[in-house]
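ok trying again, last paste got cut off:
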Amino acid sequence: MTRITPMMQQYLEIKAQHPDALLLYRMGDFYELFLEDAVTASRVLEITLTSRDRHVQDPIPMCGVPYHSADGYVARLVAAGHRVAICDQVEDPRHAKGLVRRAVTRVITPGLIVEPGNLDAKQPNYLAAVNQRGSRYGLAYLDVSTGEFRVVDLDGAEALHDELLLVSPRELLLSEDDDLPFPGGQLPWRELAVTRVDSVDFDQTRAVERLCQHFQVKSLDGFGVQAANSAVSAAGAILSYARANHLGSCQHVTRLLPYSRAEYMALDEATLRNLEIFGSASFTGRKGSLLDIVDRTQTAMGGRMFQQWLRYPLLDLRSIQFRQQAVAELVTQDIRRRQICQRFSHMHDILRLNSRIHVGNATPRDLYALRKSLELLPSLHNDLLPFNSHRLAALRDRWDMLVDVTDQIAQTLVDDPPLSLAAGGVIRGGVDAELDRFVRLSRDAKGWMTQYEAEERQRTGINSLKVRYNKVFGYFVEVSNANLAAVPSDYVRKQTLVNAERFITEQLKIFETQVLEAEDKRQELEERLFHQLRLALAAEARRLQAMAEVLAEIDCLAGLAEVAATYDYCCPQLDTGGALRIQDGRHPVIEHFLEHGAFVPNDLDMDNESRQVLIITGPNMAGKSTILRQVALIVLLAQIGSFVPASEARLGLVDRIFTRVGAA
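nice, full thing came through this time. structure:
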């Protein structure tokens, strides 16, 4: 190998701290990878593999990606199963003495993604951890892109398997001492990334201390997790992992949300697959699934909440009825409902914007998007005033206009700011007098040059004299060879061209210094003021999260109302009896792919006494499987609070759906 340079020595020292990650090392406008990392990245990203000192006997392999477009490349590396460590310059190269200091500022794994371009807007991105104690399992999962943090205790490996399929985490943390807690030691699905961490991270005492310190409480009792010791240990491991990978203090994670499986309908792997709730065997993605038909949410945060509703249908009759009443009221208020949906279509993802503010990678455009979203709140509140249903009234009572937050952004940032803070022109005029002075000096440079050019032409009598600027030579006076005899004695030659000479003057030197210093000061001041604004917004995390949850729920309810109104669904009557009575029931997905009115509806009458079992006969393709799926989907929709595809339905609450469709 070639001689180790100081830069390469620095790289190797940092790489030694992250041996299991691909290290992206910032050099100017590129992130470079070296040695085996370069070989791996060039293969995954399909980019050219080159080398340093290629003429020596053993050159160092290298490849690179542009700094400004690195997110897309990082996403591809993570999707291919690699951890990526981002190594940035942590001091200004202009002020560095010797080699610029560098350090790892982020480690990106499948469960620690916050960049919007690398996330599906309507899909959560969970980092999960499992802690086993005997036959019981504690499961915790965190979406760092929103701050959602949940824990549950489960009885047995089968329950854990089913719950992980519902949660669908991108990454799973396990203790290095534990075996895979799944039947046959097989992962629930191939794409799940499993990361082994030190067993100390799962220690109960340390986990409680870590969580109490994070939430700034003396005890976790207020979160209702007293009986969920193994899940609390898993939650502590997640928090430790996030911090160890440079995700900051995670202060946008403000709550620990325990739940019990007994509160929700049970949906196992076979049921999710056979009912095609989230995906269809006939199409890729969500097309052809129940979700594809009934998800009419307009916001990303509403879309994620709606999927949560489908994964966890309710068993509490009163909660279901509150949702039904809200949907019914929105169905009858057609014009207002459409107005609400229209406003939601212009709303950005407040939860993920809030998270990026905390992590520290929010851009000026992110804060502007937050402002534009919050400006919709007064109009939405007015739209909701006529509604009286219990759930909508309760959501309206929790309303926070966030006027102070909106005003702070509007008063600090310009309208429609540039994408990058480095581009400049982010802070509104009048915010800081010193910044205004530097901006004026930079902006007026061209005007000063024109004025100085006119003055020098008059002083020298050279009418073709030009005052120009370029990045290599800075500011200069250019005089053609024919006029060199008229050049004043205070002109200092700077560059000789074929047909002209370039000069510098003392006045130009002073001006150049002022302009360059002004630009540096402007950038420094803008960065400081933007950072102060970001910190001020970070302090409002709880308010932003609380309001985002209110908006997401209204979006879900309005979406269900839109589906009911569009497809002529009815409001089912639910009770605690054992009957299933459906009149003119329809399959919500199949009817969507047929011409209007082509689907033949079916009736059903069952109960726990005289009609517990029905045997359906008929030839192949006669619709036997369709009616089985149809009944299950109607029951599921009813228990998320939705209207259902039927002319009338009376349903007893169901605690579990079993399916075995299409098997011989």
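cool. The two ends are 63 Å apart (CA to CA). The longest helix spans residues 506-538.
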